């Protein structure tokens, strides 16, 4: 799920992805990456400059997924969730970075 609330009280919820769930047998096929890229594209369209992903730690959790897409720890815990954020301005899209399709740091650096 993606959410956009530029006036939100907490920065982590102004532009965020949370509760991205895929069945175990569907993971590793690019569906999660596709969903994150779609939310990132919408964030850029809406003029957002940072994106946060939130996840709940557990044995089969997604802790290795968002770092591969360039999201970095914030050092916070919010309501039992771990936020990670894009480290740079998301205004620059993949086309601005030599065609990269990864929504993380390489795609968002200006």
Number of strands: 5
> What is the CATH C-level name?
Alpha Beta
Q: How many separate domains make up the residues?
A: 1
Q: Rounded to an integer, what's the Rg over CA atoms?
A: 13 Å
Point out poorly predicted stretches: 93-110
Q: Helical stretch count?
A: 3
H-E string: EEHEHEEH
User: What structural class do the secondary elements suggest?
Assistant: alpha+beta
Would you give an account of this structure?
- InterPro entries: Acyl_CoA_acyltransferase, GNAT_dom.
- It is an enzyme of class 2 (transferase).
- Residues 64-110 are annotated as: Disordered.
- The protein has helices at 31-45, 65-68, 105-108, and strands at 2-4, 15-18, 52-55, 72-73, 82-85.
- The protein has 110 residues and is of the alpha+beta class.
- It has a 5-stranded mixed sheet with strand order 1-2-3-5-4, covered by helices on one side.
- It has a single domain (2-108), classed as Aminopeptidase (3-Layer(aba) Sandwich).
Observed structural traits:
disordered C terminus; five-stranded mixed sheet; alpha+beta; acyltransferase; 21% helix; 5 strands; single chain; 110 residues; Aminopeptidase; GNAT family N-acetyltransferase
Give me a quick take on this structure.
This protein has 110 residues and is an alpha+beta fold. The chain contains 3 helices and 5 strands; from the N terminus they run ββαβαββα. One of its GO terms (molecular function) is acyltransferase activity.
């Amino acid at each position: 799920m993606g959410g956009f609330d530029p006036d939100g009280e907490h920065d982590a919820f102004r532009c965020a992805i949370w509760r991205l769930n895929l069945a175990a047998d569907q993971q590793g096929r690019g569906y999660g990456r596709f969903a994150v890229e779609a939310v990132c594209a919408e964030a850029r369209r809406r003029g957002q400059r940072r994106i946060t992903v939130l996840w709940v730690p557990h044995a089969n959790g997604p802790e290795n997924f968002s770092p591969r897409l360039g999201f970095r720890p914030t050092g916070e815990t919010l309501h039992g969730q771990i936020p990670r954020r894009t480290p740079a301005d998301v205004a620059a899209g993949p086309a601005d970075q030599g065609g990269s399709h990864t929504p993380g740091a390489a795609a968002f650096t200006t």
